[in-house]
Structures are given as structure tokens and as C-alpha cells.
Amino acid sequence: MHILIIGAAGMVGRKLTEALIAAGELGGKPITALTLADVEAPMLTLAPFHVSVVAADLSLPGAADVLVASRPDVIFHLAAIVSGEAEADFEKGYAINLDGTRLLFEAIRREGLVAPWCPRLVFTSSIAVFGTPLPASIPDDMAHTPLTSYGTQKAICELLLADYSRRGFFDGVGIRLPTIVVRPGAPNKAASGFFSGIIREPLNGVEAVLPVADDVRHWFSSPRSAVGFLIHAAELDAAALEQRRNLTMPGLSATIAEELAALERFGGKRVVALVRRAPDETIGRIVAGWPQNFSAQRALSLGFRAETSFDDIVRAHIEDELGGRVPLG
Amino acid sequence: MHILIIGAAGMVGRKLTEALIAAGELGGKPITALTLADVEAPMLTLAPFHVSVVAADLSLPGAADVLVASRPDVIFHLAAIVSGEAEADFEKGYAINLDGTRLLFEAIRREGLVAPWCPRLVFTSSIAVFGTPLPASIPDDMAHTPLTSYGTQKAICELLLADYSRRGFFDGVGIRLPTIVVRPGAPNKAASGFFSGIIREPLNGVEAVLPVADDVRHWFSSPRSAVGFLIHAAELDAAALEQRRNLTMPGLSATIAEELAALERFGGKRVVALVRRAPDETIGRIVAGWPQNFSAQRALSLGFRAETSFDDIVRAHIEDELGGRVPLG
Ligand SMILES: NC(=O)c1ccc[n+]([C@@H]2O[C@H](COP(=O)([O-])OP(=O)(O)OC[C@H]3O[C@@H](n4cnc5c(N)ncnc54)[C@H](O)[C@@H]3O)[C@@H](O)[C@H]2O)c1
Ligand SMILES: NC(=O)c1ccc[n+]([C@@H]2O[C@H](COP(=O)([O-])OP(=O)(O)OC[C@H]3O[C@@H](n4cnc5c(N)ncnc54)[C@H](O)[C@@H]3O)[C@@H](O)[C@H]2O)c1
Questions:
Q1: Phi-psi bin for B81: left (phi > 0), alpha (psi -120 to 50), beta?
Q2: A59 pocket-lining for ligand 1 (C-beta < 6 Å)
Q3: A298 in contact with B at a CB cutoff of 8 Å?
Q4: pLDDT given for residue B16 in this prediction
Q5: What CATH number is given to the structural domain containing A70?
Q6: Would you place residue B143 in the very low, low, confident or very high pLDDT band (cuts 50, 70, 90)?
């Protein structure tokens, strides 16, 4: 089993790489080769099978052709620029998030014309395909009315994935990831960054700013669950999907207050005191347009699983990033 | 007021051209120039204002730039290849229905970078963006799960239209047309052709084949209503659309039995006897995947209007195509 990860140098890509190496197999078949591709050359990792690393800009014509020439059995397509950057740079967002994906899909289709080949392709979409007005809990058949270019690009890629799969060019599964918390590493500029920051920073003894009210509700899962979704999507029997190949992943609908209560249970009052309230109207307005809760009925019935309490999310962070102990605890 | 129609040589394009010339105005402003573009050069039409005709293939780079260089105030984008052709020729469908539209949208955006310009753009989408399983009556916020490449291409263009409008590159309105009956002219190869054929042919004394059962239900409007939708979409106050710029048009949900009853009321038993039942399993299966009924609540509340009985649809055909009388009547 040969696996290709595109966007392998990113947060989810690195965790997926680790998980695949640890498992050594996918869907019961031993992994024999792993190709890690990203515009920023991914780090070469030690593994009991062949790992190769490719630096490639998916938005450049020809790049995808090179990646698919070795005909991997499973392709994880995670490469994207984030919402904020796609909003700030219209052309770059469409070039990478839409055209990059289409170039990949076309490269697979053309490779399949040479000799039959139908790899499983797992694509990471986002709940940003939904935009207000929205019901309190969003059903699986809710229309996509994105309010960002990033969300538009993800929604278009979902449509392409479904059509290419229907045509038999590849065997696609699109998964709409919740907002992933706690995102490890340095704070980034994403408007959603504070959801992770108010857990990550205080647990490291560092102050974190909370720009929204405590009753703000959003939809979360841990990086660990995200990796679980990707692997389950790669192993899934596609017949069960019928014609609907894009799925809202399960997640946890929680408020900031619930986040902070979980933080206190793990870190105590001293840690929670490091969260400084500094309401920011701009961020507040952006966040007010985001989805708060989903039914995710189809994904649950297909066996996808996420955290069911914020304690689980904080615990996953402490176990996976902090060696299992709270530095300040 | 300068108006550009792309796809002007098509069935809807020709009827829209006639209607605009007859009205002489749009949204209360006198029409001063009309540009008719199509890959098949549209016929030059006499009008009390300047009419120009352009033969241009929208899917070729540069073609859209020429069309937008004169900065029309309103652009009707009707150019497309139909469902059957887009399904038979994957690359052609994407080249015309998706890339052609994107080249047009990009040409408008770039023209607006030279000097501010924000034309109203009316795009004809289709109920083919919806695919089974579907509820009996489809609400306005139903997810798009097209089961054809044509429907996929239309759904993608809707998403692009919304994002380009949100960005202020143009002022777009996307309208999902019902199946248009009675389509004038020779029978075409569309799987939906019989819905028009069983009215049009018998009224001309010619036999027509009915490949599906009498209880098959579908969603219709007349060519006259389609032109009405286009003009209303061009005149609409966009503020009322808020962020949802793509609308399911109103229509008539009717069965074949209701169609035939209306035909009999206008043409008598002799005319209805020209409908020959010849069940076709392939067509039956295709049609079974089509939507049957919509709420179209938003479009109705925005003032769009369609026929409310099949008699109205047959009457529109007799008035607009047969000079007001039934040849065999
Ligand atoms: N993290 C989240 O909360 C979240 C939520 C929903 C969806 N997603 C999606 O999941 C995927 C992975 O997310 P992440 O958090 O790991 O993002 P990330 O930004 O950490 O990783 C994305 C990777 O894609 C790479 N990339 C960007 N442009 C590229 C190009 N032109 N060619 C090749 N590689 C390119 C980047 O270098 C980066 O390593 C993305 O598609 C993202 O849109 C993430
Ligand atoms: N007729 C219907 O029932 C129906 C239903 C839903 C949506 N629509 C949509 O409404 C629009 C008009 O429909 P119609 O029935 O008049 O279709 P039509 O086929 O009669 O007209 C389409 C026109 O587009 C032109 N065209 C095709 N490729 C082109 C290209 N590359 N460059 C320039 N022009 C090109 C064709 O020459 C044709 O004149 C289409 O976009 C169609 O998809 C129609």
C-alpha cells in the first residue's frame, strides 16, 4: 500500500504522518511506501517502510502529474492556504485552494486514461462552506452558502470531488473538519486562533487574550480526532456513501464558558486566570457568522467519532503535546 | 443602458432579445445599446437602438475580455452546453460551462481593477444542481448534490457568482430555471425533451412519444416566464438578496397526466391521441432522479412569478409560437 500525503508539512499532515508510521498499516494492508509532499519540503521521517519527500507547489501546472505518476493507492489532499490568507489574497486563494485541487483531480483522471487506476482520495473540506443565516443545529443536507473565498473554494472542491468520483476517475471522500483545537505550536493569525490559544498558552504559563464573550458557541474536535477522521475516511467502504461523498464530521458543540471550565479542571484557577478578556468587535462579528452546531448524523452512522466533552479535548492536548502532564498543574 | 447577452443565439437568448427590444427599457432606463454574443453568430435584429452581434467562443482565453471591454451595465450569461452533451463530453462540459463562466467572471473583475465598474450579472443556473434523495418539496436551503457534470458545473458557477458578488467585483443574481416547456422548434436530444414534445408535436398534427408513466411529476415554466425571470433578476434591488444571490425560480409542479389534460382542453381528443406511450426504462430511471417540486419561497417573496396551471403553459405556447390558434383545434 503506497500512500501520498499532499500538504504533509502542515499541522494535520504531520500528525497524520506520525499516526500512519505508528500503525504501519491502513485498512488492514501493510504500508510499503509513503510520499510526503508540500510546498515547504516536509521533514524526512524514520519509518519501517520507504518514505520519500517531495517539495512541490500544487498550484503549478505539472506538479500534480509528478505526484500521481507513481500511482499511490491512497491520496490525502490536505494542501491549502487558510481562510484569512485566501480572503486577503483573492488570486492566491483561488490558485492554490481551487486550481491546485483541480490540477490534482485532472492529473489523476489523465493518469487513469493511460491505464485503469482509481485511488481513494481523501480531501479536507471545512465547515466554512456554511454561512449565516443558519439553524442552531445544521443538518447534513444544508445548502452551502459560504461567506468567505476559502469556504467557496472548499465547497467547489467538494462538488468536483463528487463528480470525479461519480465518473469513476477516483474514489473520493470529502470530510468537513470542525475547527481543530487545541492547535499546537505558535499562535497563528487565524481569526479562530483564540479558541486554541486560551487553552494552549495558559497551560504553558503564558497569558492568552479572549476577544469574544463567554457564551460564544462553536464546533470543535481535537487534532487527534482529525487524524482519526482521515484514517477512517481512507478505510471506509465507499458503497455506504452512495452518491453523497462529502460529509460533515462529528464534533463537539461547546461554549467558551465550557472551554474555560475544562481548562480549570485540568489547570486550576491559577491557569484560568491567565485568560485575559479583551473584547474585539471585529473578531466578534466574524465569529457570529460561524456555525455553532451540527447533527453530523451521516458521519456518525458511518462510524466517524469525535470528542464528546471539552475535557476530552484538553486531555488529548496534554497527552499529545505536553507529555501527559500540566506544566503549571 | 448597454446590455450584453452571452448565449444570445439560444432558445432563451432569442426570446430575451425580442422582449428587450419590445420593451425598449430595463429597470426604467432606456436601452441604448444591445450586444448579442454567441459561439454561433446571433441574427442581427432590427431595433430602435444600436444592436451589435459578436461571434465568440467564451471558453477561449481572451474572448470574455473583448466582450466586457465596452463595460455593459447589465450582462445576461446564458451560454452553456446542455446536460446530455456535458455528460457525454466531460472535458467540453467543464471547458464551456465552468471555465467559460470563470473566464467571464475574471474578465469582469480585471476590467473593474482598471477603473471601478460593477455590472449586474444575471446567470442561468438549473434545478440540475439538486440530485436524489430529495424531499417531495425542495426548500430554498437544500444542499446541492448534483448527479450530472452539468449540474456540478452550474452549482460551481453559483458559488463563484456569490463570492465575486460578495467581493464587489460584480452584482450577480443566479436563477435556477425550471425545465422550460413548451420548448419551441425541432425536438432535441435532451432526456427531458418529451415534456415539450408531447405538447408541441401533437398541436402540429405530429405524433409524439411519451417514454414515462402518466404519474411522473416534474417542475416547469414557460419560455415566457423564463424571460420574465431574467428581466426581473436584472431589475431587482440586490439589497433584498442579502448574501444569498442564487435563487430557485418559481414554477409549476405537474404530472404528465396534468399535461395531457391541459393538452386535451386546448386540442381535443384527436390531438391527445397523437401521444404514443412507449415506456423507456433508461429515460425512466434518469427522470426518477429529478426534482419534482420546490417551495421557491424566496424567489416568490422577491416578486418572481411563474405559471400556476399547465393550461397557462399551453396557452403561452399557442400565443407565442402558433399565432394564438391551434392548427388542428
Ligand atoms: N486546522 C483546522 O482547524 C482546519 C479546519 C477545517 C479544515 N482544515 C483543512 O485541513 C487541511 C489541513 O489543515 P492544517 O491545519 O494542517 O493546515 P496547515 O496550514 O497547517 O497545513 C496546510 C499545508 O498545505 C501546504 N500548502 C499550502 N499551499 C500549498 C501548495 N501550493 N502546494 C503544496 N502544499 C501547499 C502548506 O505548506 C501547509 O504545510 C487544510 O486543507 C485545511 O484547509 C483545517
Ligand atoms: N431550457 C431549459 O429548460 C433550461 C433549464 C435550466 C437552465 N437552462 C440554462 O439556461 C440557459 C439558456 O438555455 P437555452 O435553453 O436557451 O439553451 P440553448 O442551448 O438554446 O442556448 C445556449 C446558447 O449558448 C451558446 N453557447 C454554447 N457554448 C458557447 C460558447 N463556448 N461560447 C458562447 N456561446 C456558447 C449556444 O450556441 C447556444 O446558442 C443555459 O445556460 C441553460 O443551461 C435552461
A1: beta
A2: yes
A3: no
A4: 98
A5: 3.40.50.720
A6: very high
Cβ separation A162–B146 shorter than 8 A: yes
Residues A306 and A256: beta-carbon distance below 8 Å: no
Q: What is the pLDDT of residue B328?
A: 57
B112 shares contact with chain A (CB less than 8 Å): no
How far does the centroid of ligand 1 lie from the alpha carbon of residue A89, in Å?
16
Q: How far is the CA of A10 from the centre of ligand 1 (A)?
A: 6
- Hey, which of A101, A177, A313 would you mutate to test ligand 1's pocket, going by the most ligand atoms within 8 Å of its Cβ? A177
- Choose, out of B152, B164, B169, the residue to mutate when testing the contact with A (most A CBs < 10 Å): B152
Q: Is the pTM of this model over 0.80?
A: yes
Mean pLDDT, chain A, rounded, equals: 96
State how far the Cα of A231 lies from the Cα of A109, in Å rounded to an integer. Answer: 23
Q: What is the mean pLDDT of residues A106-131?
A: 97
Question: What pLDDT was estimated at residue A327?
Answer: 73
Residue A67, ligand 1, Cβ within 6 A:
no
Answer for the pair B164, B114: CB distance below 8 angstroms, yes or no.
Answer: no
Q: Across the interface, do B156 and A152 touch by the CB < 8 Å criterion?
A: no
What percent of chain B shows pLDDT beyond 70?
99
The per-residue b/e assignment along A5-31, b for 16 or more CB within 10 angstroms, e otherwise, is bbbbbbbbbbbbbeebbeeeebeeeeb
The predicted structure's pLDDT at residue A108: 98
The total number of structural domains that make up chain B = 1
Q: Tell me how many degrees the CA angle A163-A168-A174 measures, rounded to the nearest 5.
A: 50
Chain A nearest-CA residue for B289: A243
Say if B174 falls within a structural domain: yes
- Exposure of A242 by Cβ count < 10 A (0-12 exposed, 13-18 middle, 19+ buried)? exposed
Catalytic member of A130, A150, A170, A195: A150
- A232 in a domain, yes or no? yes
Cβ proximity of B266 and B326 under 8 Å? yes
Residue A280 backbone phi and psi in degrees, to 5: -125, 115
Q: Which residues of A touch B155 (CB under 8 A)?
A: 159
Measured between beta carbons, the chain B residues lying within 8 angstroms of A243 are 131-132, 145, 147
The grid coordinates of residue A120 equal 481513494
* Residue where the block lists cell 499532499: A6
Q: Is residue A218 part of a domain?
A: no
pLDDT of residue A187: 83
Question: B161 lies in which domain range?
Answer: 2-178+223-248
CA atoms within 13 A on the CB side of B142: 27
Q: Is A150 a catalytic residue?
A: yes
Q: Alpha helix locations (H) across B74-192? A: 83-88, 90-93, 101-114, 149-166
Q: Is B292 left (phi over 0), alpha (psi -120 to 50) or beta?
A: alpha
Query: Is residue B201 a part of any domain in this protein?
Result: no
Tell me which chain A residue has its CA closest to the CA of residue B142: A143
